[in-house]
From TrEMBL, chain A:
It comes from Geoanaerobacter pelophilus. One of its GO terms (biological process) is glutaminyl-tRNAGln biosynthesis via transamidation. The keyword Aminoacyl-tRNA synthetase does not apply. This is Aspartyl/glutamyl-tRNA(Asn/Gln) amidotransferase subunit B. Residues 330-477 form the Asn/Gln amidotransferase domain. It catalyses: L-aspartyl-tRNA(Asn) + L-glutamine + ATP + H2O = L-asparaginyl-tRNA(Asn) + L-glutamate + ADP + phosphate + 2 H(+); L-glutamyl-tRNA(Gln) + L-glutamine + ATP + H2O = L-glutaminyl-tRNA(Gln) + L-glutamate + ADP + phosphate + H(+). Its EC number is 6.3.5.-.
From TrEMBL, chain B:
GO terms for biological process: translation. It comes from Geoanaerobacter pelophilus. This is Glutamyl-tRNA(Gln) amidotransferase subunit A. Keywords: ATP-binding, Ligase, Nucleotide-binding, Protein biosynthesis. Its EC number is 6.3.5.7. Allows the formation of correctly charged Gln-tRNA(Gln) through the transamidation of misacylated Glu-tRNA(Gln) in organisms which lack glutaminyl-tRNA synthetase. The reaction takes place in the presence of glutamine and ATP through an activated gamma-phospho-Glu-tRNA(Gln). GO terms for molecular function: ATP binding; glutaminyl-tRNA synthase (glutamine-hydrolyzing) activity. The keyword Ligase applies. It holds the Pfam family Amidase. Residues 24-465 form the Amidase domain. It catalyses: L-glutamyl-tRNA(Gln) + L-glutamine + ATP + H2O = L-glutaminyl-tRNA(Gln) + L-glutamate + ADP + phosphate + H(+).
Length: 479, 485
């Protein structure tokens, strides 16, 4: 029998607010344990949550960017369960009335364009974390670090519209790109700022009844998501083929084996006893707030991708590379603002700039060559002051020591030689020294032409204008 | 007259005139506590040294001419208010060793005025109870008759005022926990409108019902205390951003033309004859004062107790989940694993009534029962709220008994929780409706126990009930009766 997988994703996005969702504590990553806590996030008796408005604003942004409707009234609920890293014995989340509902994202790939529905987006608080180690004073026991408790999360829940691991990854990448573009999440998957739970089931092809699903928790890389889903599909099909039954359970992905394994048995199935949190009043969002937020949205990657092609005449490939991250797109657009020609700026941003950053392990926000510096250099190329090749040398110099392109060209004597007399002199000398090759060329061996170009460029230390060199060489070699 | 016998406003006069010092007042109260609390057991923690220090500071403040109505006045707090650096137990073994790192907003506001805290008062564990018998620190006794309960859950708050140990106290009222003990102890007890006073730093029992309020010797003191603790608190999302009126301006003896309503559902056959007599007399007093007495109906009253015990216990089951032995409070020794640690800590730390309510609430919220219990109860709550709002379209104040009987004997109802739950039958609807109510002394039973009268106002109608209560107090002698201890 052939099987059809059905996949839905729940993505947890940690929001980049300065303070936590229900108190004023810092959300900075990596501080010493429990240094960023207060009575509220510690769940001390008597403490009460107060909603951080910034979190709501970020949730609205995420909702608008994923084509959701923003609920004029939403409600916080308590999700009750016991765990040592959960200070209050319940997690404040949204349940029945979430802030955003009914959106979608279009994903492109070998399947063409496919629309993935977004059921809902809700706000919630994170739990703390357990530390199991030989912490001084703990006698080898376990400790609880509640710095992360109460940090704001968005949970973005997709419809079960995804059918393959590749589609899942495409959807995740798109979502990741959007939340980073929006500036609401740092996108750091290693630190868990963007992680996903994958709900996977399989059913016979042609069936309209979904199979029993499993939930694989907290997968935090695109590669792992693909592996986890593929493994889960394979495991479930094998299980059914062998006459077994998939049980609804929570599973964990093990990056070392590339497999998923059961996390807890059915007997521990939770009844979360959700009910509206009486400590928080219903959240009312005015239409004005939504519209103001809409105006504050940046141009999203999809729109940029289209505009780069239609207005700037870039190829789909260029447009895709340049819009991959908001920072690269902004770098590129700053170059345009400074007067660069689009195709040239695109080539350099995707070429030298990206290469340099990769080699140095830097992000573009730390790029040593500013758009303004780059554009000056590009203008020297356009004016014919330097060749493309020399420009790369100048770029390296800018990268290493800063300064301006014009100054570097002047100081290092890199101005391109377009003076025909000077170039003619070089050509004559080279031809005289290589009469054998001259004969070959004249005998019809065109390939030798490249040899002469190389020689002339070397003799001129790369400064000879290639166009002039070409023109003169053709004339002279032909005699 | 001893200093501990004074009201807030009387003491304020003396302090202002520099006839007495706060240190003297505090010493007087501490001596009174020392002399009486072995019999009353109103205090869980007495903070004598801190109180004397604070009194000395208050005296300096007064000397500098900086005096508020509460400056230097010795008060005490129900042990449900967290107090920075001072043990706060909520009368539970669970929190026996708990020292909070922060102050509740109500206490901060009092402290800012220079009020002095004598200590922390006994109560039913986590405010669950109507008799102050469910305390890990033993029951509080009624100063009028030590065989009787003082009422609950703010039994310690009422008993301390009635036993003249503290000039005034703060309690909390979830289903009548201020009004009912105030009634049983012959004090004035005020439950403000939900949202009027911050709940920040008040250990939660049922968040949507809990409200902070004063227990005092007279209505004037209640107005002063309420005016001090009321107001919006940015730390409590459910507190309301409305200006706080000067409640002392409502202390007028005039109720001419005021429409006072008697809900027929509250004057039932089973009412204790002494209570009925006191109500009849009170109604007659109001009539004489020129108020218009009308009959109304609050048709959903019958469902209030059941509705309350579903909502309150559901919220409590969640609010009390944090007591599991991980970060503070009681942790069971020798648990073999995590789950056992949770279970043993809770089994050992909580008393029977708390466990009963957690079980009830957990059940009410369980999947499959949520709609039938919790959700249904919320709908009933809305109907009860509408009953009141509708009634207040035509009347100013609703007059009812506070409790069906005067204080009962210690142990009398402990074996019958349902019977105990019914003792809050007249106060619970006010909490469900989220509106305000005040209990004022209105009689003494044949067996010598105080009887209280409840005046219910519209939401944020505290000024009206204070005025009605004050007029009654001025026209009668009940407030002057004291427990003979
Ligand atoms: Zn905090």
């Amino acid at each position: 029998m052939k099987y059809q997988p059905v996949i839905g994703l729940e993505v947890h996005v940690q929001l980049k607010t300065n303070t936590k969702i229900f108190c004023g504590c810092s959300t900075q990553f990596g501080a010493s344990p429990n240094s960023q806590t207060c009575p509220v996030c510690l769940g001390l008796p008597g403490a009460l949550p107060v909603l951080n408005k910034k979190v709501v604003e970020y949730a609205i942004k995420a909702g608008l960017a994923t084509n959701c409707a923003i609920s004029p009234r939403s409600i916080f609920a308590r999700k009750n369960y016991f765990y040592p890293d959960l200070p209050k014995g319940y997690q404040i989340s949204q349940y029945e009335l979430p802030i955003c509902v009914g959106g979608h994202l279009d994903i492109d790939g070998e399947w063409g364009t496919k629309r993935i529905g977004i059921t809902r987006i809700h706000m919630e608080e994170d739990a703390g974390k357990l530390v199991h180690s030989d912490i001084p004073g703990l006698g080898g026991g376990s400790g609880v670090d509640l710095n992360r408790a109460c940090t704001p999360l968005l949970e973005i829940v997709s419809e079960p519209d995804i059918r393959t691991a590749d589609e899942a990854v495409a959807y995740l990448k798109k979502l990741h790109q959007i939340v980073v573009y929006l500036g609401i999440c740092d996108g750091n998957m290693e630190e868990g700022s963007f992680r996903c739970d994958a709900n996977v089931s399989v059913m016979p092809v042609g069936s309209d009844k979904f199979g029993t699903r499993t939930e694989t928790k907290n997968v935090n890389s695109f590669r792992f998501v693909k592996q986890a889903i593929e493994h889960e599909i394979e495991r479930q099909i094998e299980l059914i083929e062998d006459g077994g039954k998939v049980i609804q359970e929570t599973r964990l992905f093990d990056p070392n084996t590339g497999e998923t394994r059961s996390m807890r048995g059915k007997e521990e199935a939770h009844d979360y006893r959700y009910f509206p949190d009486p400590d928080l009043v219903p959240l009312v969002i005015s239409n004005d707030w939504v519209e103001d937020t809409r105006l504050s949205l940046p141009e999203l990657p999809e729109a940029k991708f289209a505009r780069y092609q239609s207005d700037l005449g870039l190829t789909p490939y260029d447009a895709e590379v340049l819009t991959a991250t908001r920072e690269l797109a902004e770098y590129f657009e700053s170059c345009l603002t400074a007067g660069a020609q689009p195709k040239m700026a695109a080539n350099w941003a995707m070429g030298e700039v990206t290469r340099g950053l990769n080699d140095a392990g830097l992000s573009i926000s730390d790029c040593p060559v500013t758009p303004l510096q780059l554009v000056e250099l590009l203008q020297l190329i356009e004016k014919g002051t330097v060749s493309g090749k020399i420009a790369k040398t100048v770029f390296d110099e800018l990268w290493q020591n800063g300064g301006t392109a014009a100054k570097i060209v002047e100081e290092k004597g890199l101005v391109q030689v377009s003076d025909t007399g000077e170039i003619e002199k070089i050509i004559d000398e080279i031809m005289a020294a290589n009469m054998g090759q001259v004969e070959e060329y004249r005998g019809g061996k065109d390939k030798v032409f490249g040899f002469f170009v190389g020689q002339v460029m070397r003799a001129s230390k790369g400064k000879a204008n290639p166009a002039v060199v070409n023109e003169l060489l053709v004339k002279k070699l032909k005699g | 007259m001893e200093l501990y016998e004074l009201t807030i406003h009387e003491m304020n006069e003396l302090l202002k005139a520099r006839k007495v010092s706060s240190v003297e007042a505090v010493q007087s109260c501490l001596a009174r506590i020392e002399a009486t609390d072995t019999r009353v057991n109103a205090f869980i923690t007495i903070t004598g040294d801190e109180a004397l220090k604070a009194a000395a500071a208050a005296d300096q403040q007064i000397a500098a001419g900086n005096i508020h109505s509460l400056t230097g006045v010795p008060l005490a707090l129900k042990d449900i208010f967290v107090t920075k650096g001072i043990r706060t137990t909520c009368a539970s073994k669970m929190l026996d060793n708990y020292i909070p790192p922060y102050d509740s907003t109500s206490w901060l506001k009092l402290k800012d005025c220079g009020a002095v805290m004598l200590g922390k008062l006994n109560q039913d564990e986590f405010a669950m109870g109507s008799s102050c018998e469910n305390s890990a620190y033993g029951p509080t006794r009624n100063p009028w008759n030590s065989e009787c309960i003082p009422g609950g859950s703010s039994g310690g708050s009422a008993a301390a005022v009635a036993a003249q140990q503290a000039i005034a106290t703060l309690g909390t009222d979830t289903g009548g926990s201020i009004r009912q003990p105030a009634s049983h102890c012959g004090c004035v007890g005020l439950k403000p409108t939900y949202g009027r006073v911050s709940r920040y730093g008040v250990i939660a029992y049922a968040s949507s019902l809990d409200q902070v309020g004063p227990v005092t010797r007279d209505v004037t003191d209640a107005a002063i205390m309420l005016g001090t603790v009321a107001g919006h608190d940015p730390l409590d999302s459910t507190s309301v951003a409305m200006p706080v009126p000067d409640y002392t301006r409502s202390l007028l003896s005039d109720v001419k033309g005021m429409k006072i309503a008697l809900p027929k559902e509250y004057f039932i056959d089973g009412l204790d004859p002494d209570v009925q007599k006191a109500m009849d007399a009170a109604i007659e007093t109001y009539r004489k004062l020129g108020a218009e007495i009308v009959e109304i109906t609050l048709p959903h009253t019958d469902y209030a107790v059941a509705c309350y015990y579903l909502i309150a216990t559901a919220e409590a089951s969640s609010n009390l989940a944090r007591y599991e032995g991980v970060r503070f409070g009681h942790r069971a020794a020798e648990a073999k694993n995590l789950l056992e640690m949770f279970m043993k800590s809770r089994a050992e730390g909580f008393g029977a009534e708390v466990k009963r309510r957690i079980m009830l609430g957990t059940y009410a919220l369980s999947s499959g029962y949520y709609d039938a219990y919790y959700l249904k109860a919320q709908k009933v709550r809305t109907l009860i709220m509408q009953d009141f709002l509708k009634a207040f379209e035509g009347v100013d104040v609703i007059l009812t008994p506070v409790a069906p009987t005067p204080a009962f004997k210690i142990g009398e109802k402990t074996s019958d929780p349902l019977q105990m739950y019914l003792s809050d039958i007249f106060t619970i609807p006010v909490n469900l409706a989220g509106t305000c109510g005040i209990s004022v002394p209105a009689g003494i039973s044949q067996s010598g126990l105080p009887i209280g009268l409840q005046l219910i106002g519209r939401p944020f109608g505290e000024e009206t009930i204070i005025r009605a209560a004050y007029a009654f107090e001025q026209a009668t002698e009940w407030q002057k009766q004291k427990a003979k201890l």
